[in-house]
Amino acid sequence: MSNASEAISHDIPSDSRGRWNQHDTQWVLSLFGTAVGAGILFLPINIGIGGFWPLLIMTVLAFPMTYLAHRGLARFVLSSKQADADFTDVVEEHFGAGAGRLISLLYFFSIFPILLIYGVGLTNTVDSFIVNQLVLESPPRVVLSGILVAGMIAIMMGGEKLLMRTFSALVYPLVAVLLFLSLYLVPNWQIPVINTPDAVSLTQTLWLSVPIVVFSFSHAAAISSFVNVQRRHYKERAVSKSEKILQCTSIMLIVFVLLFVFSCVLSLSPEQMTQAKQANVSVLSYLANVYDNPYIAMLGPLVAFIAITSSFLGHFLGARESFNGLMSKQTSLTIATIDKLGVALMFIAIWVCAVLNPSILDMMGAISGPIIAMILFIMPTIAVYKVPALQQYKGKLGTYFVLAVGVLSVSALLFNMLG
């Protein structure tokens, strides 16, 4: 067991085990922060460009897609006979040593490129803010990126209390800004064009929209560490408490993010959405230009900074745990040594990538996508039919739904990559 999740564990009073408490709230915030990355600024365009009907249908499906998938992954990690098993231990236990290590390696490489992307994105966002909003000279990139990446990793090394306080400090303003922007745009809403959809076109649009929704709300990277903390806190009640926290997280995501998406989409015409897509700019940047509103333009970098930072922390949690789990089975080094080595290597890699600012990151993200979909949707469903502890979920409608979404997501991603 890696000490990544051990570093974020503390005892809670026994009298609070049956009620909702601050511990639960903090984990909702941390999972919310993990899910809401910089992609939220592109989500309204990506999901809304297909028209009104696909947007409405995907809105209805967003909650079950998000909650059921993450619940399945949480159940999978909690199905281990080992009390302190992390994701690497569980896949090896259920699928054998060879397959387990391969899946664990794929899991790590599905998360790690996202950290590289966020390292570059955070550096670019802060640099742009310094130059454009503060009207100062651009600082040396090697210094700026080093300070930013080191700062985020320092938070991770500070333990659970610092991590949870940071998530609270980031997520509350993020929710407040999203809500404010959603309501601020209401006077600009336009009645959407509602035409009778063409069945073939609607089906294809929905199919290609599945991965967008899946990854816009994904907090899979933090699930293993999250459920292990709940297992130590709540013992035999870990499954029910984990599911309750995941349910609240999904509701929070759907309410605040989709309200923001709808508000942005209803403020733009289909032609404007297409222009924004072609220009590859965030929805707030495009809205600021369309309405000549510097106020919205100022909030764009703020949302991006908060979203990237909170999502980076959640993904680093998953990468750190999976690296520790893999290396502990390959070397005779102590967990503490492996953890320090992993943190150091990831810091160097993220820092170098942030300095180089490569254009290959989109491709890396495309590679991460299918792997995350298989681990989040398909693997836990297969485990339901293989693992005795999970067979109580066989034949459940939710199990089939998660598998169907996983297949659609992987096929749509592969279609986009090959198309």
Automatic annotation (TrEMBL):
<keyword id="KW-0813">Transport</keyword>
<keyword id="KW-1133">Transmembrane helix</keyword>
<feature type="transmembrane region" description="Helical">
    <location>
        <begin position="338"/>
        <end position="357"/>
    </location>
</feature>
<feature type="transmembrane region" description="Helical">
    <location>
        <begin position="397"/>
        <end position="418"/>
    </location>
</feature>
<feature type="transmembrane region" description="Helical">
    <location>
        <begin position="363"/>
        <end position="385"/>
    </location>
</feature>
<feature type="transmembrane region" description="Helical">
    <location>
        <begin position="295"/>
        <end position="317"/>
    </location>
</feature>
<keyword id="KW-0812">Transmembrane</keyword>
<keyword id="KW-0472">Membrane</keyword>
<dbReference type="InterPro" id="IPR018227">
    <property type="entry name" value="Amino_acid_transport_2"/>
</dbReference>
<feature type="transmembrane region" description="Helical">
    <location>
        <begin position="166"/>
        <end position="186"/>
    </location>
</feature>
<feature type="transmembrane region" description="Helical">
    <location>
        <begin position="142"/>
        <end position="159"/>
    </location>
</feature>
<feature type="transmembrane region" description="Helical">
    <location>
        <begin position="102"/>
        <end position="122"/>
    </location>
</feature>
<feature type="transmembrane region" description="Helical">
    <location>
        <begin position="206"/>
        <end position="227"/>
    </location>
</feature>
<feature type="transmembrane region" description="Helical">
    <location>
        <begin position="27"/>
        <end position="45"/>
    </location>
</feature>
<keyword id="KW-1003">Cell membrane</keyword>
<dbReference type="Pfam" id="PF03222">
    <property type="entry name" value="Trp_Tyr_perm"/>
</dbReference>
<feature type="transmembrane region" description="Helical">
    <location>
        <begin position="248"/>
        <end position="268"/>
    </location>
</feature>
<protein>
    <submittedName>
        <fullName>Serine transporter</fullName>
    </submittedName>
</protein>
<feature type="transmembrane region" description="Helical">
    <location>
        <begin position="51"/>
        <end position="69"/>
    </location>
</feature>
<keyword id="KW-0997">Cell inner membrane</keyword>
